[in-house]
Structure formats: structure tokens, C-alpha cells
């Protein structure tokens, strides 16, 4: 059993924010999620698997149960950073931006870019002590 840490959950929330538009996580997204999880937890394959599964759990909660929407998730991420400022360092824009390659629709690409911009600004503001 691998401990479900707040840090791992925060990373899962970031990724879900970028893939939650679709009812199902596509093969392209699954591949990127696995790659990112393995990069983050290169020396801990169990934690990489837990991150992968947590992302799918969060995504399922959102799409099947409508328990969260974009604004709820954005507010949760923002509040997590306010409570734990070191979480801002976990926002890896280059990793998260990889999901753009899975998007075909131009409107969805624009939305993706806005989410990336938001996360980038949130990270910068937090690192600068603005939050």
C-alpha cells in the first residue's frame, strides 16, 4: 500500500484539470499521464502507479458524478497552494503542456492554452509571494 499524499493528489488535480473536458481519458492522454507519472516518481514505480490511478479516479468523479467542475477544481488548486505554498513548485508547465498534442479542436486548444497560462501565472505569483 502506497501512502496517498496531499502532494500526489495535488499533482493529480493539475493533470485532471487538463484532461477533464473529455468523458473518457483517451489513449494519447493515458500515454502522457504514464510518462509524466514515471518522470515525477522515477525511483518509485508504485507511487507512479498510484498517481496514474488517482488521476483516473478524480476524472471519473468529475465525469460520472459531476462532483466538480473547472471552477471548483481551479479554486481547489489555488487554495491548496495558499495552504501549502511549496506546491507551486510542482506545477511543471512543460509536462502539463504536452497534453496539447492530444487536442484536435481549435477551441479546445485555446482553452488548454488558457489553463496553462493560468497555472503558469499561479506558479509565478506563488513563487513571488503574491498569493
Care to describe what's here?
The chain has 131 residues and is mainly alpha-helical. It has one domain (6-127). The protein has six helices and no strands. It has helices at residues 6-19, 27-40, 45-65, 70-83, 93-96, 106-127. It is globular, with a radius of gyration of 14 Å. The protein starts with 5 loop residues before the first helix and ends with a helix.
Kindly estimate the percentage of residues that lie in beta strands according to DSSP: under 5%
Question: Averaging pLDDT over every residue, what do you get?
Answer: 90
* Amino-to-carboxy terminus distance: 35 Å
Largest sheet: none
Return Rg in Å. Answer: 14 Å
Name the quaternary structure. single chain
Report low-confidence residues grouped into runs of 5 or more.
none
Shape: globular
Give me the strand/helix succession. HHHHHH
Secondary structure blueprint with pairings:
Elements: H1 6-19, H2 27-40, H3 45-65, H4 70-83, H5 93-96, H6 106-127
Write a short abstract of this structure:
With 131 residues, this protein is an all-alpha fold. It contains six helices and no strands.
Key features of this structure:
mainly alpha; 6 helices; 131 residues
Amino acid at each position: 500500500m502506497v501512502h496517498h499524499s496531499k502532494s500526489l493528489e495535488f499533482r493529480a488535480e493539475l493533470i485532471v484539470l487538463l484532461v477533464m473536458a473529455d468523458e473518457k481519458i483517451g489513449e494519447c492522454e493515458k500515454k502522457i499521464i504514464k510518462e509524466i507519472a514515471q518522470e515525477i516518481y522515477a525511483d518509485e514505480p508504485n507511487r507512479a502507479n498510484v498517481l496514474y490511478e488517482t488521476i483516473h479516479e478524480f476524472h471519473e468523479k468529475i465525469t460520472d458524478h459531476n462532483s466538480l467542475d473547472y471552477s471548483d477544481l481551479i479554486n481547489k488548486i489555488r487554495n491548496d497552494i495558499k495552504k501549502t505554498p511549496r506546491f507551486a513548485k510542482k506545477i511543471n508547465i512543460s509536462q502539463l503542456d504536452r497534453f496539447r498534442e492530444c487536442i484536435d479542436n481549435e477551441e479546445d486548444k485555446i482553452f488548454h492554452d488558457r489553463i496553462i497560462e493560468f497555472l503558469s501565472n499561479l506558479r509565478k505569483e506563488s513563487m513571488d509571494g503574491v498569493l
